[in-house]
Write a structure and sequence with these properties.
single chain; 158 residues; mainly alpha; elongated
């Protein structure tokens, strides 16, 4: 095995965080159709949903820009060159997953469904178990004390 293959998180190659988020988002919308939660969304609630989704997109874009600045990979299956701790990463260790979390809540809310609020904690548990725990173990092994200090200073979500 080459170093490139050993220098990466041990995340199943079939696990892709955007797909996980999309599954939960679609599930929330389908559940609303077949098992509706009684809810008369106001314009404010729909706007709040759109706002949450927009903030989620901004979190992802901010993370993307930080990774581009230091020329390392966004691929959760890849090898990172540097520990990113600037920009949005000063506030959350997982801005992309937090962004997906907000989208899982926001898009359904914008369409008048509360199922996103139900689905979001399950999304968080799934991505934590399948991705985040493995990424953190990898970063701890690769960056040692630098990652430990960072993780003590910055929360996993917010």
């Amino acid at each position: 095995m080459s170093d490139e293959h050993t220098d990466s998180p041990e995340i199943n190659k079939n696990v892709h965080p955007p797909f996980i988020a999309l599954v939960y988002l679609i599930a929330a919308l389908i559940l609303q159709k077949f098992i509706p939660i009684p809810f008369e969304p106001s314009g404010t609630a729909k706007t709040a949903g759109l706002g949450l989704a927009f903030i989620g997109v901004l979190f992802g874009l901010s993370a993307f820009m930080e990774f581009r600045k230091v020329q390392t990979t966004l691929d959760p299956h890849g090898s990172v060159k540097i520990l990113v701790t600037d920009g949005i990463y000063r506030f959350t260790r997982n801005p992309i997953y937090l962004g997906f979390f907000l989208m899982v809540i926001g898009f359904p809310l914008n369409y008048g469904s509360l199922w996103g609020l139900v689905a979001a904690p399950f999304f968080a548990a799934t991505v934590s178990r399948l991705v985040i725990q493995k990424e953190e173990a990898y970063l701890e092994k690769k960056f040692k004390e630098q990652y430990t200090n960072y993780s003590l200073r910055v929360r996993r979500w917010l």
